[in-house]
TrEMBL record:
Classification via InterPro entries: Portal_protein_SPP1_Gp6-like
Name of protein: Phage portal protein
Pfam families cross-referenced by the UniProt entry: SPP1_portal
């Protein structure tokens, strides 16, 4: 849709046609959510069995429906390896300390690290999510008070189908986001009212559907940037193994049905039964008579083992093809005191998967930093010096490794490199001790104790 066509439809208040010019992934997202929520799994559609009794009457026999939340497990572990440790913002420019301080303060104030995990969880399960930034004030915003300290607070919120939002995007031929739309419903009294908000670099357009058509209100965008970041991926984290998950659930449900019939032992008797033992009888004996008399239990052991083996194979394939590690208690117990490097190799697939995600998240977090910088120079501090610092500010993004740190491996390597010489001062070692709250006081006390020991030895 060209800018001219966009403006034409907007002026005509033809919002339905305007909205149809945007791209939406609503159908893909809805299908993804059905797979993510166990109540919507395919196995839940199994119908109860209707059997006919000897007297001609019919009876409904319950068919087990046992969904397995594999999708959630895959997503949660992917989130843990990506954002298990918070993202670190690193200042990579000089003379920008003040604006970088504003940035880190807002980052903490908006709880971005916690929101990052929530955002990743939503993206991995729905294939799209957006983060919207907006100014929040207690009093009406004016040109006079907008730059006063504490008047405007920058906030962010996630937008997703699971949160009641339908996302719309409009990209140009170069892949640059030209407009971002959000559709949602608001309860007004006892009636749901449809809203459609459009965010552009120059304007923010608020559309409300009334009985006689759309009501449109256009406001200037104060920061000059689209205040939203839009995340998208082609498919869910489990898409490639969805058939395997459905088969796993089906086998488990069928096994439960069979267990209802044959889990308890079934005694097969051949011949004429002379006597059966009582429940409390000691030395119980079954007496049979006649040619070929025999007694045995019905045990479909081969079928049970085949189902068990197939489910084990499915489990391994699901984890392997989604790069999802097995962190069950049984598996973790076999690891023991594995070194840090060995631990990284053990979880190498999951770490590689997280690294692939860095491509998208580094780009989008960088965009969000630029949005926050625009809010800083517009609302937080309008001093021209801050504006210049914001322009010069360069921020690096460092993703953490969720695996436990192995200092022993590092220390051994450094010790080997120095030929066994000391590699750390006592003062530095004390400051790194997690059990010490005040490193300076602790170090002074150690020095005093050493002095006392020397005096004692001299005496």
């Amino acid at each position: 849709m060209t800018p001219e066509k966009f403006q034409e439809l907007l002026e005509a208040k033809n919002i339905d046609s305007l909205r149809s010019g945007f791209v939406t992934r609503e159908k893909v997202v809805e299908d993804s959510l059905k797979q993510y929520q166990i109540a919507e799994h395919q196995v839940m559609k199994r119908q109860d069995k209707i059997i006919k009794k000897a007297d001609g009457a019919t009876e409904n026999v319950k068919q087990w429906k046992l969904p397995v939340p594999y999708q959630k497990k895959i997503v949660e572990l992917a989130v843990a390896f990506l954002f298990g440790k918070p993202v670190q913002l690193v200042q990579q420019s000089e003379g920008t300390d003040e604006v970088f301080g504003y940035l880190t303060d807002l980052w903490k104030d908006m709880r971005q690290n916690a929101r990052n995990r929530e955002l990743a969880r939503t993206l991995f399960s729905e294939t799209e999510v957006a983060r919207l930034f907006f100014p929040q004030t207690e009093d009406p915003l004016t040109d006079e008070n907008k730059s006063k300290p504490g008047v405007v607070k920058v906030r962010s919120m996630l937008l997703a189908k699971s949160l009641g939002d339908t996302l719309y995007t409009l990209f140009d031929s170069y892949g640059a986001l030209q407009a971002f739309g959000r559709g949602y419903l608001v309860m007004e009294g006892e009636k749901e009212v449809e809203h459609f908000d459009v965010y552009q670099a120059k304007n923010i357009i608020y559309c409300t559907k009334k009985d006689d058509g759309w009501e449109v209100e256009t406001k200037a965008n104060p920061i000059g940037k689209i205040p939203a970041s839009y995340y998208k991926q082609a498919q869910t984290e489990w898409a490639d193994v969805q058939p395997l998950i459905e088969r796993y659930e089906y086998l488990g449900s069928r096994r439960a049905d069979v267990n209802d019939y044959s889990a308890d032992p079934i005694l097969i008797l051949k011949g004429i039964v002379q006597s059966l033992p009582g429940k409390d009888e000691v030395g119980r004996v079954v007496e049979l008579d006649g040619p070929g008399a025999d007694a045995s239990y019905l045990t479909p052991q081969m079928a049970v083992e085949m189902v068990k083996q197939e489910r084990e194979n499915l489990k391994e394939d699901i984890q392997f093809f989604t790069d999802t590690p097995d962190i069950s208690l049984e598996k973790m117990a076999t690891i023991g005191t594995t070194s840090g490097k060995a631990m990284e190799l053990l979880f190498f697939q999951a770490l590689l998967k997280a690294m692939r995600k860095h491509e998208l998240f580094e780009e989008m977090i960088d965009r969000e930093i630029n949005i926050i910088k625009a809010f800083i120079t517009t609302f937080v501090d309008t001093n021209p010096t801050i504006a210049q610092q914001a322009k010069n500010l360069k921020v690096g993004i460092e993703f953490g490794n969720p695996l436990p740190d192995s200092f022993e491996d590092v220390l051994n390597m450094l010790n080997l490199a120095t030929g066994g010489k000391a590699i750390m001062s006592q003062k530095t070692a004390v400051s790194q001790n997690p059990l010490v709250k005040d490193a300076d006081t602790e170090y002074s006390q150690l020095q005093g104790e050493e002095t006392e020991d020397k005096v004692t030895l001299t005496i």
